[in-house]
Amino acid sequence: MTRSRAAAIIATVALSSAALTGCWNGPGSTTMMQATMNSGNGVQATVGNIQIENATLVAGPEGTTTGTLTLRIVNTGQTPDSLVYAVIDNGPAYVTPGSETFVPNASVSFGFDSKDWINTYTLKAAAGTYVPVELGFKEAGLVKISVLIVPPTGYYVGIAPNPATMPSATPTPSAS
Asked: Which three-class secondary structure state does DSSP give residue 145?
């Protein structure tokens, strides 16, 4: 093999390796961008010292307009924060009384294996679609996310609003 042919082969391999890798590296790569897009259940978000983890809306029993927001709220700050505003699918959300305060360096689970709930009783969207969710915190501010609605099957069996119907005096945090 001649030197010029060997150099041509090496150059071809070197130039084509980037095309053969399937995606490119760096902060704008396709694999990195997927983390910021809605690609299924378990939406993540951060506002101030508050982290929202694995937000998913479980549709209520068939024939109802209810749903339960399952998520974990983590306060990574050094001071307490509180939930003062909650909206699901552009309607008011019911938050279990007493679960609105988040102590520093701790987390609270809502809706799954928990005594705390964030419910909607006015859900109009179907399972498999995304709905807007807004959670406002006294210190951290407002976070707006788009959350997938899933049916109450499989992993989500048994998750339903608690209480099953909206209480007459809803203690929902709201914008004032």
From this structure: strand
